[in-house]
Amino acid sequence: MMSVNTSKNKRYQETEERICRAFTQLLSVKGDSDITVHDICTCAQISRPSFYAHYEDINDMIIQMEQEKGVQIQKLLISEEGLSVRSFEQYFCFLKENREFYTAYLTASSSRNMTSRLMD
Fold this sequence. Notes:
With 120 residues, the protein is an all-alpha fold. It contains 7 helices and no strands. The model has no long low-confidence stretch (mean pLDDT 81).
């Protein structure tokens, strides 16, 4: 039986993680507007069709990464007891765990949109 490429498929998830890690790695040496699909595929050691099985283009990838991280942050900060010391501790741990991404992404030239959303 052939496996279906869905977000629940382990191989699909692993490839998506490789794409995101590659993008983050490339951000530390290039601005996000200078990164190409070819760059990401080479760094992630995947084919172009694999990239396009996950994302329409680089902008789609960035938007999905922003949304995913935003949802994770909201879950950490918004709990049943509201904002608490514990929720902020979890938030700062999340930022620390994702430091490489945020450091590279927030200093990239065209990431100002995410910066303004984080400030809101």
